[in-house]
Amino acid sequence: NTFRGLLMLDLLKDRHVFSKKYKENLYFAGEYRYTDAYFSHSQKFSRYNTFVKYYGQLSEKTTLTMSQSAFGSKWDASGQIPTRAVEERLIDKFGSIDPSEGGNTFRANTNIILEYRPNKHSTFKNQLYYSRYDFNLYSNFTFYKDDTTHGDELNQIDHRNLAGYKSTYNNTSTLWGKQISSEVGAGVRYDNSVISLNHVEKRVYLNAISGGRLNQFNISSYVDEKIYITPKLIVNPGLRYDVFNFDFRSSVNVDSSGNVTAARLSPKLNFTYNFTNNFQLYFRNGYGFHSNDARAVIINKVTNANQNIIPRALGMEVGSTFKLWKSMLINVSFWQLSLENELVYSGDDGTVGSVGRSLRKGIDFGIRYGLLKDLYFDLDINYSHGRLVDAPKDSNRIPLAPSITSIAGLSYKPLKGFGGSLRYRYLGDRPANESNTLNAKGYFITDLIVNYTRKRYQLAVSVENLANIYWKEAQFATDSRLRNEPASVEQINYTPGTPRFIKGIISWYF
User: Is the pLDDT of residue 39 over 80?
Assistant: First the structure.
């Protein structure tokens, strides 16, 4: 019981709103989707998206872009199920322990950009944005571990207003005979949110666990330079400065209220060398930071916990992009990411914990190849090795951090007639906990689409999970307890992935 409708319109088509002299565009897109999905309990999932965008040239030097989008969704959920519940046939493999899970969410975004070009070398850009966000989620990860009578179902709520402004200036100039492309910018963002985590039973309120009002303020500025040392060598230094103010007023525990301000300076330095038009080598490195949870910042200050407010991150990458033949593009890169404080969110109690420093290293490899005029091949393979730096070797894995991922496909795309694609996505096994005693199983899924295209319409058939593999999508090491169990058990809890799913698609162009 799945269906989806999509409508996209060009509303102006050479007509004008503000000026008959300059170019203007106005677009609308709308989508609605409903599905009961493949679970034993109907998901009743509904979702809509709308998007309106205007682009207009107000004068020879000024352009205006405005967009408005909205998203809404509500659903029932089967939730994450314990492996033992399926193995012991307590539930079907698409069944549920607590079918009262689910929720609803909404988001509306407004974005306005005014761009001014005083000359061909300079650009001023001013951006103003606002978002309204509502989130209401019912979930049950541990079932009857903490409350053997009512169960452990949680209700997470976030009602948020988010607003910001950003201004940038771009300029191309010459210094000492070298071409320089400069960008400077500054911005401010403000978040105001009422958040809460409650204990519920079948979506009926029992008691509050945590909650309060959050005010978070961020001021940022940056400078980014591209210096063309030679026609082939580009040096790109940059510097960013951020100031954060976290203010949280708890409605449950007065001791977890407070105000904290912190700043972070983040430099970067990149190099690009173009040996030829078909061969580029690059080296990039720079500092950033791990985002944090305002409640954790306040609580750690109150308890004098030794935790960095804005944990620093250092990333480095060396790689190359090159063409072997006219129609084959290859990219390969070696990268490393070091975090001085790995932060982990626990949805069970609404807290953020620290597991210390972490280090990730990896290789990314990609190919784009035009085999024939309308036949294309693409492949991406990624390898990552991640460890917790300060933990003992027998417990230093980063939970759920993948080691190998890959996607690839073969696509036939003529302008008219029959076409299609065959694609796969692969995610390898990965540790589910620090000791790797629990393992999140990987999967290899293939998808097929066949279409017939004419000038005014297209007919298509899409098959997801062509081989009908039973696979596990979301997977977590969870300490849970079923109603009749004497004690909790830690094992993999998971959400089953989509079985073979065939869709018919009709598109009409007008």
Answer: yes
Buried b / exposed e along 15-26 (16+ C-beta atoms within 10 A): eeeeeeeeebeb
Please, is 276 exposed, middle or buried when counting C-beta atoms within 10 Å of its C-beta (0-12, 13-18, 19+)?
A: exposed
User: What token pair was written down for 282?
Assistant: 């690059």
**498 to 94, 101, 218, 288, 462: CA distances (angstroms):** 10, 19, 40, 37, 13
- Statement: residue 350 has pLDDT above 70: no
The closest alpha carbon to 8, from 49, 40, 36, 38, belongs to 49
In this predicted model, which residue has the larger pLDDT, 405 or 300?
Answer: 405
- Residue pLDDT, tens place only, 147-204: 999 999 999 999 999 999 999 999 999 888 889 999 999 999 999 999 999 999 999 9
With beta carbons less than 8 A apart as the criterion, state whether 442 and 491 touch. Answer: no
Residue 226: strand pairing partners: 181
**Of 298, 307, 291, nearest in space to 353 by CA:** 307
How do residues 307-339 score in pLDDT, each as one tens digit? 678 999 999 999 999 998 889 999 999 999 999
* 301 vs 295: CA distance, rounded Å: 10
Nearest to 472 by CA among 2, 82, 74: 82
- Token pair listed for 53: 């965008």
305 pLDDT above the threshold of 60: no
User: Hey, what amino acid is at 279?
Assistant: F
Please tell me the pTM assigned to this model: 0.90
How is residue 252 written in tokens?
């449950």
Q: How far apart are CA 13 and CA 11, in angstroms?
A: 6
Q: Which two tokens stand for residue 317?
A: 């990458």
The 3-state DSSP composition of the chain as helix, strand, coil percent (nearest 5) reads 5, 65, 30
